[in-house]
Specification:
With 186 residues, the chain is α+β, with helices and mostly antiparallel strands. The chain has one domain: Sandwich (Jelly Rolls). Helix content is 17%, strand content 33%. It starts with a helix and ends with a strand.
Length: 186
C-alpha cells in the first residue's frame, strides 16, 4: 500500500513540463461561406496562359482549410488542349464534369468523361486530360491543397507563351512533375 501512495504522490507532484503539450490545431475558416456561380473566392477569374486558355475560379482555397483541401471551377475554352502528362506526388484529385466532354489518361488507362461524370486521380500516378468539346466546365478538388492555386496564378501572370522547358519548371516550382506530352484527341 505504501508503494501505491508513493507512486500517486510522485505523479501528483510531477512537473507538467514533462508531458508533451497537445498539438496546436492550425487556424481554419470558422464560418461557412458562399461563392456564387461565375465568381472566385480569391483572385477573381484566373485566365490561364500556357497549357490552355481556360478560366479558373477558386471556390474553396487552401487558405480556407489550412491546406487540407482546395476546390476550383474551371471553364474550359480550349478545345483539343489540356495538360501535359504530369504527376502530383502529394495530392489526390477529383474532377467532376459539369458540362462538355473530356479525355483523361490516368496511368495507362484512358477514359472519356461527359456531363455528370467524375474521375479520381490518385497521387503519384501520371495523368493528363484534354478538352474534347467546344466548351466545358469542371469542378476540380485537390486533397491536400498543395500549391495548385499558386500555380494557376503564376500561369495567369505570364506575358508570353512559355516554352516546354519553362512549363516544366513552373510545374516543378509548384510540386508537380511533367513526365510527358499532352493527351491528343481527334
Amino acid at each position: 500500500m505504501k508503494r501505491r501512495k508513493f507512486i500517486q504522490a510522485a505523479l501528483a507532484t510531477a512537473p507538467l513540463t514533462t508531458i508533451d503539450p497537445p498539438l496546436a490545431i492550425p487556424e481554419r475558416a470558422e464560418k461557412g461561406f458562399k461563392i456564387s456561380k461565375g465568381e472566385g473566392r480569391y483572385h477573381g477569374h484566373i485566365q490561364l496562359k500556357g497549357v490552355n486558355a481556360n478560366i479558373l475560379d477558386v471556390k474553396v482555397s487552401g487558405k480556407d482549410t489550412n491546406g487540407a483541401l482546395a476546390v476550383f471551377e474551371q471553364t474550359s475554352l480550349s478545345p483539343k488542349r489540356g495538360t501535359p502528362l504530369h504527376v502530383h506526388p502529394n495530392q489526390d484529385e477529383v474532377f467532376h464534369v459539369q458540362e462538355g466532354r473530356y479525355a483523361f489518361l490516368v496511368g495507362e488507362d484512358r477514359f472519356e468523361l461527359q456531363t455528370g461524370d467524375s474521375i479520381f486521380l490518385p497521387r503519384k500516378v501520371p495523368h493528363a486530360w484534354t478538352q474534347i468539346s467546344e466548351k466545358g466546365r469542371m469542378t476540380v478538388m485537390l486533397q491536400p491543397a498543395g500549391k495548385l492555386e499558386e500555380f494557376f496564378v503564376t500561369m495567369a501572370g505570364l506575358t508570353i507563351e512559355p516554352s516546354q522547358s519553362e512549363i516544366s519548371k513552373i510545374f516543378a516550382d509548384h510540386e508537380m512533375q511533367v513526365v510527358g506530352p499532352p493527351l491528343k484527341v481527334d
